[in-house]
């Protein structure tokens, strides 16, 4: 199969879909890899490394799209790339279609076979989302601590405090991979941490993990409203695989919160879990509403591209090789994980949560392949 990888064009996105080691694995399996020149530079991988691994370097992205049977990316295609879609193309990347109707329509109209990292699922685990969730969770505390600084509009409070001063109160909405990793860093920095989730078993696991260092609470409107009033930093880390995120963080909470408190919405890729959230970029990451600093960057792990690229491609390579080796149809039949990753096929929506998010017709993939 002809495999393509282009430079990401999203704002301040420096990750890349393939490392030189990944290229070597595809070439060893008998595939041909086309890399856009400079695609890996932002993650610290030189063009020469890709050539040594067996890739063909191509001067411009349009030619890579045209030559490829399967395009491997990191982030969703942007509007300027929609015209490069072609019938039967396999697109393997993060898509987050529940929050992006325009992209979804372009994929359907282009009859692209779109496989989303974030919906590949094995035994209720999301293996291709997990590494970025780990990074985003850890980054959320790092970024939140920074924007608590006065010069950014924050309270001017140190997350860990010092002897004789109060520690910051950190509230984490959602106890999944993002929430657990945010919790780990917040506890490590010495903050007071409260974490909420609807799943009692998960709260028990977190309690066993962190013990007396955290407070666990069942997530409901009353508990969320009560704890955010005293919060210095709130982390939104709620996820419904492929679907729109429920708005747990209400606008009505903002006037009740501390002036200069910070809200980091890690769920913004899926539409965000805050009613007051809208997507920001690394160039302009924050805005203030009702005195609360909002950080809603849609590609948080892009800030640490070397770590992120290696972590992501460690997870995606296995499934990419299966798709390239068997074709998407046979790979989907033999792997439930890949089957769950297919969001669009032959102009049809094949992910039920995405279809529900937009009120579109859902088609079971098995009826198409």
Strand content: 15-25%
Helicity range of the residues?
A: 25-40%
User: What is the count of DSSP helices, taking H or I runs of 4+ residues?
Assistant: 12
Structural class: alpha/beta
- Taken from the alpha-carbon principal axes, the silhouette is globular
User: Which CATH-level-2 architecture of the largest domain?
Assistant: 3-Layer(aba) Sandwich
Per CATH, the superfamily of the largest domain is: NAD(P)-binding Rossmann-like Domain
| Average pLDDT figure | 95
- Main pleated sheet: 8 strands, mixed
What is the total tally of β strands? 15
CATH topology of the largest domain: Rossmann fold
Give the termini separation.
Answer: 19 Å
Number of domains: 2
The strands making up the biggest β-sheet line up spatially as 3-2-1-4-5-6-14-15
Using brief descriptors, characterize the structure shown.
single chain, 369 residues, alpha/beta, Rossmann fold, 2 domains, seven-stranded mixed beta sheet, 15 strands
């Amino acid at each position: 199969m002809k495999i393509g990888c282009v430079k990401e064009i999203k704002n301040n996105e420096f990750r890349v879909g393939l490392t030189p080691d990944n290229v070597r694995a595809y070439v060893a399996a008998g595939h041909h890899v086309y890399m856009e020149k400079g695609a890996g530079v932002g993650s610290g991988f030189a063009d020469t490394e890709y050539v040594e691994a067996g890739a063909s370097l191509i001067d411009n992205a349009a030619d890579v799209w045209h030559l490829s049977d399967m395009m491997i990316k990191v982030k969703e295609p942007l509007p300027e790339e929609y015209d490069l879609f072609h019938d039967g193309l396999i697109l393997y990347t993060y898509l987050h279609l529940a929050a992006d109707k325009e992209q979804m329509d372009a994929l359907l109209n282009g009859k692209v076979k779109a496989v989303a990292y974030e919906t590949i699922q094995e035994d209720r685990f999301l293996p291709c989302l997990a590494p970025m969730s780990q990074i985003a969770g850890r980054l959320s505390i790092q970024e939140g601590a920074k924007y608590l600084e006065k010069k950014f509009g924050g309270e001017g409070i140190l997350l860990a405090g010092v002897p004789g001063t109060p520690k910051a109160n950190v509230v984490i909405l959602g106890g999944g991979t993002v929430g657990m990793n945010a919790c780990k860093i917040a506890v490590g920095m010495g903050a007071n941490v409260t974490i909420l989730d609807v799943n009692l078993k998960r709260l028990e696991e977190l309690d066993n993990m962190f013990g007396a260092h955290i407070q666990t609470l069942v997530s409901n409107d009353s508990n969320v409203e009560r704890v955010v009033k005293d919060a210095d930093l709130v982390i939104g880390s709620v996820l419904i695989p492929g679907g729109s995120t429920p708005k747990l963080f209400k606008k009505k909470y903002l006037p009740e919160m501390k002036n200069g408190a910070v809200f980091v919405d890690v769920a913004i890729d899926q539409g965000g879990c805050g009613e007051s959230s809208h997507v920001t970029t690394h160039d302009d990451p924050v805005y203030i509403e009702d005195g609360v600093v909002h950080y809603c960057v849609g590609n948080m792990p892009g800030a640490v591209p070397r770590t992120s690229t290696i972590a992501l491609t460690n997870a995606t390579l296995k499934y990419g090789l299966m798709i390239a080796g068997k074709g998407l149809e046979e790979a989907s039949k033999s792997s439930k994980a890949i089957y769950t990753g297919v969001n669009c096929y032959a102009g049809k929506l094949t992910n039920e949560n995405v279809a529900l998010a937009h009120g579109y017709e859902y088609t079971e993939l098995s009826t198409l392949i």
